[in-house]
């Protein structure tokens, strides 16, 4: 069967806007919005949901201790009144706000924080996010199913929680802003059991009012939300099961406000060339890099010169052109909007002649034959063909293996199976706006294990040590030094050329005239497709 | 007849058992690891191992299979890996929509297909016949995805007669039924046409004509009941065709049926859901075939059940 749907890969798009956006906190309340999606929502359990569709829905239903300023990547306290870090960076003390409530009316206390963190890291929860909390003291034994709980999380009093880390980690505040760190009420989780994902109870700006499988979900304003005046809308309706092409027709006829799956590739030019429709499109950056992995443990890619030659052979401008300019060419692992991106670094320029010469010098004057794995959803096979053509210019014959997403991921997780993989549709979008998130799982030794995501099987122990050092630099005064450390790590990685960074995707959101708010809310770094909590109805008063 | 029915039911049960085995083995052989899908990209090897252990994925194939079978016999289809909900409740919540669409599409294809077939047969080798046969050829070959979008664009967006996808009222049902029914209508019109032509040339028709019966009476009383026989048998067999069409049509129109559920489950290697949907569809196909075989002798006493 021909696959014509986008599938959700875990992760979220983040656009680091840097400056604080001007979000109108006093915008009028009222009105409703209709968002369309192709796929039914898998789950709304914050410990389990990990695809781009339910990620921001969960953000609107649940809150954690930390969050982000709307429209930015700037951390702020969410349910926490205060957050203090000890001198050595090991002890984080959170004090909860007063009078904050769950949707079921119960007040939130410090024990709820402990329960929620223990739930997400409990092996029986089978949470895909458990690994993010590995820096909390006691994680290893609790996550292995031993002991009575997370020893590093301590309830000091009704409102105060102290979290002790086993190592200083600069990313911990971001981790506490992940959905996985959402605070959930124990009684509701236990009452619903495995069905908590269908009957979510949180403390977010909206409550789930209705869920008809395969048809629609309705979110309604939570009257007791801890931020006065938020959310702006009374109701958000998600219409499920609509093909992106059909969703676009609905938007054009005024029956939908936001096509959640975005603009389908086939209609992209048509929309952008029509002034009226293009007017409803908002463009933003994304913390995404698309790359080709070169398996450093498989011949001939175990030869660094071969990897460099391949880097020089790929014509990135042409690939970007092929996807209608919905991306910008990349020359390093980090996307330009990520802290630590090196603006000076030039990468490997496109030069097929030099690539051919380098290949000859490396002992392959006549090239070689290899395989390129790719996910079988448009536009990825077309991109793979472009790469195949570029490689044939330097004498390399790459046979394309176009497979379902899960099969490509499985092949990448074996040391000796996939010599090359085009990462499109699978990897990598940052979980949070920090350079470390582009290292560990996809370029570090920890990811170069069976079933891991380091499909280059690149493991440089010296770099691993430097990465650990960088993440131990906590506190605001170390932020600059830490960013520099990460910058040099990525430049040094490129000297070994385990990847061919190809492009950074741009994000295009479409919104009807009925919706209003600062542009940054429509390409909000942590809310995809839009920030449901803050955008408002243009007819509300 | 009762003996025949019991034997056929027994055979059907065996076929279904065979299908559970083949599907289970195929899913087992797929290189994608469901534990890794659940664990997500942030998981450590230990987390993946723990999930695999909890779901019993480390056990040998035959142990996993017999565990599945014994649960199945107790009516337990398991829980979805991704949604964590009971597979039986997921399917139950979606089955009515699929059945409604299927019945409505069968009615649609019969009305369109038989009408075209009869008219074409009576106007054999005339321009009307050629035009209708070209139409049926197109409806057989055009992809349902394209037909669905075209119908939506013309009748929902431009003319505004029907809603743009969705579920709920009779108006929502019309376009998906036509999209799904057109494919079968193409086949039926061709079959009905040739069947009619064959019957029209038979001796009893000539006799009826010689008796001086009116043309309309001959066609309705004598030709159609005979010509329609092979079509009836087709409907049962067609259920399989519908099952594949339903995946496409449901996704175009946002129809909340099991096709949509199946498609998402396949994308996410959600094995319990894939197994559940396969079992439900297989049961429908097997029952459809059985019904076709049982109904034919009732209509045509010449065919004996043995």
Q: Secondary-structure blueprint of this entry?
A:
The complex is a heterodimer of chains A (541) and B (306).
Chain A lengths: L31 E6 L14 H10 L4 E3 L6 E3 L2 E6 L5 E6 L13 H12 L17 H5 L9 E5 L2 E5 L7 H4 L10 H7 L13 E7 L3 E6 L13 E6 L3 H9 L5 E2 L8 H6 L1 H4 L2 E4 L5 E5 L9 H10 L2 H7 L4 E3 L22 H10 L7 E7 L4 H14 L3 E7 L1 H8 L7 E3 L17 H4 L17 H11 L7 H18 L2 E7 L1 E4 L4 E2 L2 H4 L13 E2 L4
Parallel strand pairs in A: 1-10, 1-11, 15-16, 15-17
Antiparallel strand pairs in A: 2-3, 4-5, 5-7, 6-7, 8-9, 9-10, 12-19, 13-17, 13-18, 14-18, 20-21
Helix pairs in contact in A: 9-11, 15-16
Chain B lengths: L1 H28 L4 H6 L5 H10 L6 H13 L13 H36 L4 H15 L2 H15 L11 H31 L2 H9 L3 H13 L1 H25 L4 H10 L3 H29 L7
Helix pairs in contact in B: 1-13, 5-6, 5-8, 5-11, 5-13, 6-8, 7-8, 7-11, 8-10, 8-11, 9-10, 11-12, 11-13, 12-13
Give a brief rundown of this model.
The complex is a heterodimer of chains A (541) and B (306). Chain A is of the alpha+beta class. In chain A, 26% of the residues lie in helices and 18% in strands.
Number of distinct beta strands of chain B: 0
What portion of residues of chain B belong to β-strands? under 5%
Shape of chain A: globular
Helix fraction of chain A? 25-40%
Spans of chain A of 5+ residues with little confidence (pLDDT < 50)?
A: 1-21
Q: Pairing-aware structural class of the strands and helices of chain A? A: alpha+beta
Terminal Cα span of chain B: 8 Å
Number of helices of chain A: 17
Order of helices and strands of chain B: HHHHHHHHHHHHH
Mean pLDDT of chain A: 90
Question: What's the count of strands of chain A?
Answer: 21
Strand order of the largest sheet of chain A: 14-18-13-17-15-16
Largest sheet of chain B: none
Strand content of chain A: 15-25%
Oligomer state of the chains in this structure? heterodimer
């Amino acid at each position: 069967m021909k696959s014509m749907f986008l599938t959700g890969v875990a992760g979220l798009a983040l656009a680091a806007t840097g400056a604080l956006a001007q979000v109108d906190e006093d915008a009028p309340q009222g009105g409703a919005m209709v968002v369309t999606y192709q796929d039914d929502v898998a789950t709304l359990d914050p410990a389990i949901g990990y695809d781009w569709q339910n990620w921001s829905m969960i953000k609107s239903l649940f809150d954690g201790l930390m969050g982000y300023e709307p429209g930015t990547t700037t951390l702020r306290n969410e349910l926490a009144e205060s957050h203090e870090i000890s001198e050595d960076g090991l002890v984080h003390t959170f004090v909860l706000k007063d009078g904050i409530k769950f949707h079921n009316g119960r007040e939130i206390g410090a024990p709820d924080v402990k329960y929620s963190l223990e739930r997400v890291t409990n092996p029986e929860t089978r949470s895909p996010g458990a690994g993010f909390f590995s820096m909390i003291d006691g994680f290893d034994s609790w996550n292995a199913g031993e002991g009575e709980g997370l020893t590093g999380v301590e309830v000091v009093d009704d409102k105060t929680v102290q979290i002790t880390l086993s190592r200083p980690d600069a990313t911990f505040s971001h981790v506490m802003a992940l959905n996985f760190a959402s605070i959930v009420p124990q009684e509701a989780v236990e009452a619903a059991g495995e069905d908590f994902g269908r009957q979510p109870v949180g403390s977010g700006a909206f409550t789930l009012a209705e869920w008809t499988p395969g048809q629609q979900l309705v979110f309604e304003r939570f009257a007791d939300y801890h931020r006065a005046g938020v959310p702006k809308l009374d109701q958000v309706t998600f219409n499920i099961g609509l093909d992106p092409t059909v969703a676009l027709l609905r938007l054009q006829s005024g029956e939908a406000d936001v096509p959640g799956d975005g603009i389908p590739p086939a209609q992209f030019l048509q929309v952008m060339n029509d002034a009226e429709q293009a007017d409803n499109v908002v463009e933003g950056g994304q913390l995404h890099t698309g790359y080709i992995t070169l398996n450093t443990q498989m011949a001939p890619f175990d030869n660094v010169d071969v990897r460099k030659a391949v880097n020089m052979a790929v014509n990135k401008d042409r690939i970007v052109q092929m996807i209608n300019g919905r991306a910008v060419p990349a020359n390093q692992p980090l996307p330009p909007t990520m802290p630590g991106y090196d603006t000076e670094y030039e990468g490997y320029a496109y030069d097929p002649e030099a690539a051919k010469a380098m290949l000859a010098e490396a002992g392959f004057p006549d090239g070689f034959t290899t395989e390129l794995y790719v996910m079988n959803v448009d536009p990825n096979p077309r991109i793979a063909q472009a790469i195949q053509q570029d490689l044939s210019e330097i004498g390399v014959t790459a046979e394309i293996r176009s497979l379902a997403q899960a099969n490509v991921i499985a092949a990448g997780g074996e040391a000796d199976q996939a010599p090359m993989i085009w990462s499109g549709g699978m990897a990598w979008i940052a979980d949070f706006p920090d350079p470390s998130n582009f290292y560990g799982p996809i370029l570090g030794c920890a990811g170069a294990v069976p079933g891991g995501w380091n499909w280059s099987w690149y493991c440089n122990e010296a770099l691993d040590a430097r990465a650990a050092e960088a993440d131990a630099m906590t506190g605001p005064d170390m932020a600059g030094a830490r960013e520099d450390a990460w910058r040099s790590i990525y430049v040094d990685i490129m000297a070994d050329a385990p990847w061919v960074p190809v492009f950074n995707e741009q994000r295009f959101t479409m919104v009807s005239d009925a919706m209003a708010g600062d542009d940054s809310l429509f390409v909000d770094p942590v809310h995809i497709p839009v920030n449901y909590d803050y955008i408002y109805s243009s007819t509300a008063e | 007849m009762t003996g025949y029915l019991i034997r056929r039911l027994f055979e059907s049960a065996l076929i279904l058992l065979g299908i559970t085995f083949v599907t289970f083995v195929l899913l087992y052989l797929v290189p994608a690891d469901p534990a890794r899908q659940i664990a997500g990209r942030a998981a450590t090897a230990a987390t993946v191992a723990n999930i695999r252990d909890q779901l019993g994925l480390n056990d040998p194939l035959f142990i996993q299979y017999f565990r599945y079978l014994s649960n199945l016999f107790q009516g337990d289809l398991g829980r979805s890996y991704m949604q964590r909900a009971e597979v039986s409740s997921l399917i139950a919540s979606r089955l009515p929509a699929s059945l409604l669409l299927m019945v409505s599409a069968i009615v649609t294809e019969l009305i369109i297909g038989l009408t075209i077939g009869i008219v074409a047969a009576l106007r054999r080798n005339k321009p009307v016949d050629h035009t209708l046969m070209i139409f049926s050829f197109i409806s057989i070959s055009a992809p349902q995805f394209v037909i669905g979008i075209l119908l939506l664009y013309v009748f929902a967006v431009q003319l505004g007669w029907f809603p743009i996808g969705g579920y709920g009222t009779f108006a929502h049902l019309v376009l998906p039924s036509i999209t799904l029914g057109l494919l079968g209508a193409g086949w039926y019109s061709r079959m009905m046409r040739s069947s009619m032509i064959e019957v029209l040339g038979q001796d009893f028709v000539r006799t009826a004509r010689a008796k001086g019966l009116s043309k309309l009476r001959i066609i309705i009383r004598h030709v159609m009941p005979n010509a329609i026989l092979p079509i009836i048998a087709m409907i049962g067999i067609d259920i399989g065709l519908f099952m594949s069409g339903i995946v496409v049509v449901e996704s175009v129109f946002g129809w909340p049926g099991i096709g949509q559920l199946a498609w998402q489950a396949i994308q996410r290697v959600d094995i319990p859901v894939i197994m559940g949907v396969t079992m439900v569809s297989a049961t429908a196909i097997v029952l459809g075939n059985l019904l076709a075989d049982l109904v034919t002798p009732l209509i045509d006493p010449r065919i004996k059940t043995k």
